[in-house]
């Protein structure tokens, strides 16, 4: 049995195991996308055309990032606490197959909320997005990177700490990261910090592919994002092998 077949079988097994919670997770993501759009409108009041673009492209980004950085570590922590995480690692499949199947599952869960966020944002702020075909690989890269980082948090630190980190990341993503507003609105030290963290490059990449006429992405941000994705996957892979 080759690795692709093993990954497909493991993905089916993961989806069936999570069948009861997946509909609820998708509904939560859709609700998050809608509330992000409508909530920021209430908070800001009159929205300029520039801010409308940021909010319309920020809602799908928030949805993707939340699934990876918040829901993924919480679900992995729950599996570790229940013992199912250790049991699954006893299955006769390579650790990377186990990891890739999980990454694909979380990406599939995140995508419906992202699509809904795009439509709701464009409608609510009356903006016309110039969507690039590259939005599909961009969304997959953002989703996989966020899920990989979230997975690394859950695997590398104690469950209680991982849970607290995931809760703190909710506020960081919603309020203290340049996702739904320009980076120059933040203090300079926070702007410098986000130049090395993955959230701002994720938002920059999705903005640049959701509206090519208004946004672009620097090569440096893409490199930062790819480094975070690779580092998180390597860290998780090493941790899973050491603890097997």
From TrEMBL:
| Taxonomic source organism | Leucobacter insecticola
Which residue range or ranges hold the ABC-2 type transporter transmembrane domain?
A: 6-209
Instruction: Identify the InterPro entries for this entry.
Output: ABC2_TM, Nod_factor_ABC_transporter
Bilayer-crossing regions? 21-40, 52-71, 97-122, 134-157, 164-181, 222-240
In what way does this protein cross or attach to the membrane? Answer: Multi-pass membrane protein
Q: Name one GO molecular function term.
A: ABC-type transporter activity
Task: Name the GO cellular-component terms.
Answer: membrane
Protein's UniProt keywords contain Transmembrane helix: yes
Q: Which Pfam families match?
A: ABC2_membrane (PF01061)
Q: Where in the cell is it found?
A: Membrane
Say if the entry is tagged with keyword Transmembrane.
yes
What is the official name of this protein in its record?
ABC transporter permease
Q: Which UniProt keywords apply?
A: Membrane, Transmembrane, Transmembrane helix
- Superkingdom: Bacteria
């Amino acid at each position: 049995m080759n690795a692709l077949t093993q990954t497909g079988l493991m993905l089916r097994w993961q989806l069936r195991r999570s069948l009861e919670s997946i509909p609820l997770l998708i509904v939560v993501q859709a609700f998050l996308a809608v509330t992000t759009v409508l909530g920021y409108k209430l908070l800001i009041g009159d929205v300029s055309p520039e801010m409308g673009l940021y909010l319309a492209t920020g809602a799908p980004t928030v949805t993707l990032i939340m699934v990876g950085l918040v829901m993924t570590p919480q679900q992995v922590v729950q599996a570790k606490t229940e013992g199912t995480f250790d049991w699954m690692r006893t299955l006769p499949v390579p650790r990377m197959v186990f990891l890739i199947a999980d990454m694909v599952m979380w990406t599939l869960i995140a995508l419906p909320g992202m699509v809904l966020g795009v439509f709701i944002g464009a409608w609510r702020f009356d903006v016309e997005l110039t969507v690039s075909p590259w939005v599909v690989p961009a969304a997959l890269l953002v989703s996989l990177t966020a899920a990989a980082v979230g997975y690394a948090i859950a695997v590398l630190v104690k469950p209680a700490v991982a849970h607290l980190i995931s809760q703190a990341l909710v506020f960081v993503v919603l309020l203290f990261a340049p996702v739904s507003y320009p980076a120059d609105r933040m203090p300079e030290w926070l702007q410098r910090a986000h130049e090395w963290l993955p959230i701002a490059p994720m938002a920059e990449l999705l903005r640049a592919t959701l509206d090519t006429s208004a946004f672009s992405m620097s090569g440096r941000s893409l490199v930062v994002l790819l480094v975070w994705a690779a580092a998180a996957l390597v860290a998780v892979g090493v941790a899973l092998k050491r603890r097997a």
